[in-house]
Write a structure and sequence with these properties.
Blueprint lengths: L2 E4 L2 E4 L74 E11 L2 E10 L5 E3 L4 E5 L9 E4 L13 E3 L4 E9 L7 E3 L2 E5 L7 E4 L7 E2 L1 E4 L9
Parallel strand pairs: 7-14
Antiparallel strand pairs: 1-2, 2-10, 3-4, 4-9, 5-8, 6-11, 9-14, 10-13, 11-12
């Protein structure tokens, strides 16, 4: 199997379906604070005079204002949890049927207002540097279910609809494009999220089929 490079797009010409599994491990380091320094010895007076039986404490200057209580340090709020559009798209686990691959896309109204949905997900294959790859995305069904077309719905906060994203091969496809991620959105202008594809054979693509957003998955 050889690898060909076209610009920034990596392509493969597999003789059979390629399955790649990548296990990633990480390690972390720890910083160990230095120990406390030794106290300097106090010189001993030659003729120490015992203190008087009663010593009046001297007034102490006002202590400087203390800093913020560490227990009340604000925790940064995670960003990007919900796009400005109020709709977020997530991808489920990859399914395999008859040498085909698919994953369920779920659109969730993560905002505080009703969200109107009517149409198909926005899906774009991305390369290693985030460049867009020439992978065709078809509004169509697959062996995982037939596309029944758009179903206009208004989602209340927290409500969801789903779509089936399938990897398909065509007779004229030939070379497969290797993608590093998918850019997913509820619609082309609804705010996208990037879904990494490391560790999956779904990185190798010919074309993609998607079904319309619906309350129930296609059969």
């Amino acid at each position: 199997m050889g690898e060909r490079v076209w610009g920034r797009t990596r392509t493969w010409r597999p003789a059979a379906v390629v399955v790649l599994l990548t296990a990633l491990t990480g390690c972390s380091g720890f910083l160990v604070p230095a120990g406390e320094g030794e106290r300097e010895p106090t010189p001993t007076a030659r003729a120490a005079t015992p203190p008087p039986p009663s010593v009046t404490p001297q007034p102490v200057a006002d202590a400087p204002a203390q800093g913020p209580d560490p227990s009340r340090t604000a925790t940064p709020t995670p960003t990007g949890t919900c796009p400005a559009s109020g709709a977020v798209v997530t991808m489920g686990e990859v399914q395999a049927v008859m040498m085909s691959r698919a994953a369920v896309l779920t659109l969730t109204n993560c905002g505080s207002k009703p969200y109107r949905v009517d149409g198909y997900p926005s899906v774009q294959a991305l390369g290693e540097d985030g460049e867009r790859l020439p992978v065709k995305v078809n509004p169509a069904g697959s062996v995982f279910g037939q596309d029944k077309g758009p179903e206009p719905r208004t989602l209340k906060p927290g409500a969801t609809v789903r779509s089936m994203l399938a990897w398909v091969s065509t007779q004229e496809g030939g070379e497969l494009v290797m993608a590093d991620a998918l850019e997913l959105a509820a619609a082309p202008d609804a705010g996208a999220r990037v879904q990494p594809l490391e560790g999956h054979d779904i990185r190798y693509m010919d074309e993609l089929n998607i079904t319309a957003w619906r309350a129930e998955l296609p059969e």
